[in-house]
Amino acid sequence: MWFSCISSTLRKKTGSNRKLDDSSTSAARERPRPAKVPGCCGSAAMRAVIQRVTKASVTVGEEQVSSIGRGLCVLLGISVDDTQKDAEYMVRKILNLRLFEDESGRSWSQSVMDGNLEVLCVSQFTLQCILKGNKPDFHAAMPAELAQPFYNSILEDMRSAYKPELVKDGKFGAKMQVHIQNDGPVTVELTSPSSPTDPKQMAKQEKQQQRKEKTRAKGPTESGREKGSQRSRQDPSASSGAEGDVSSEREP
Amino acid sequence: MWFSCISSTLRKKTGSNRKLDDSSTSAARERPRPAKVPGCCGSAAMRAVIQRVTKASVTVGEEQVSSIGRGLCVLLGISVDDTQKDAEYMVRKILNLRLFEDESGRSWSQSVMDGNLEVLCVSQFTLQCILKGNKPDFHAAMPAELAQPFYNSILEDMRSAYKPELVKDGKFGAKMQVHIQNDGPVTVELTSPSSPTDPKQMAKQEKQQQRKEKTRAKGPTESGREKGSQRSRQDPSASSGAEGDVSSEREP
């Protein structure tokens, strides 16, 4: 681990010596979060860059350590403030995001799970960069010795929620070459919900979301889809009926 | 252009029919921006996912339309609200971000320009996604017929600011395969500064930044570097002397 040597220094600075279990969640959540910095997406939250791929693989030196076919390549950046809640959110979103077309060619309608596709998840602390002028600063990233077990637990969660054999990873802390064949291209940035200004509201939203996903998990029935689109239409911020058209035609 | 058909619908919805010259800047800036949505990085701003690459290329069907060696692969998402100011910020940051090591192996010390490296820039409207549950919505993306000339002008700006032959692109609006060999991996998300709550402050920051970059452009002299690191140390939000250590040792 060629950056583990900085972890203890970093931990002293950030004061993060907490366990990643639920007991630490509220304490971590109550800590003031840094303001959003222009430049890199700077507020402390878990971040993922998700690329839809035709195939992807990881090599370390000459050795190929991992490879997937069609699916998602996820670069995952864990911040010092992240907790199990952020992890759960990320896993759920990665597995349920509708970035694939269905059998009839309708875009943005299937998730990686719907299509029985693969996930290659690679730890990427540089997503936690804050720019100091033009120099990236990574103090917002969780130190490696804490991030590694946390990252492993996220992978385990993803494997449990999906199929273990379809979730691959890189080699934490190693210098890797990540070969990505971005299909489209389709790239989405994902951020775990930041500071819950209203925890009650947040819990409510989470529950709603989980209920929705349970309904979907029962099968992508027409009635389920209908309900989804109705919700969208009732949403005053949604752009009414044309949403489906836009989504499906604007497959890049 | 296989999504141009939706542009007029989109324009009617978003009301964006403005030119991308300076006269539109203030008007665009005054429009209320959507609040940050948990999930995708949802506030309207120009977004880039920058991957440091050993090599990268773009194919459309069987044809390779572009390829670079060592450098940066930039996926660029333009929002309905973006103006020339956002473009200038992005071009400056992409070209000056220090994501490469110098000759002595010191990480995070050279920009793509310092190393005479290449840039592959590919338009990527999906970075402007807002999640409606698990379905991506792209109404925050600038419609293709406006985005294409804007995107071309950004490329031209980048070529003028650097070397035209070292800045490549994909094929706007085409279904591409973007082959990315992410080196490290090193991935950074970049967001143009959003709603300028204090335009004066913002203008001041921009000027400071430009001055700094001019100084650097004269050559990466030791004295320039020294000044930079001093500034960083004086910055109360910076984490003092160890920053250099962290940056250089935490090369992934």
Automatic annotation (TrEMBL), chains A, B:
Q: Does the keyword Membrane apply?
A: no
Q: Which InterPro entries match?
A: Daa-tRNA_deacyls_DTD, DTD-like_sf
Enzyme's top EC category: hydrolase
Q: Sorted alphabetically, which keywords does the UniProt record give?
A: Cytoplasm, Hydrolase, RNA-binding, tRNA-binding
Catalysis: reaction(s) = glycyl-tRNA(Ala) + H2O = tRNA(Ala) + glycine + H(+); a D-aminoacyl-tRNA + H2O = a tRNA + a D-alpha-amino acid + H(+)
**Chief location of this protein within or outside the cell:** cytoplasm
Chain intervals with Polar residues compositional bias: 189-198
- What EC number(s) is this enzyme filed under? 3.1.1.96
Q: Quick one: a GO cellular component term?
A: cytoplasm
For this protein, the record's Pfam families field holds: Tyr_Deacylase (PF02580)
| NCBIfam families in the record | D-aminoacyl-tRNA deacylase
UniProt family annotation: Belongs to the DTD family.
Q: Name it.
A: D-aminoacyl-tRNA deacylase
Q: Which organism is it from?
A: Oryzias melastigma
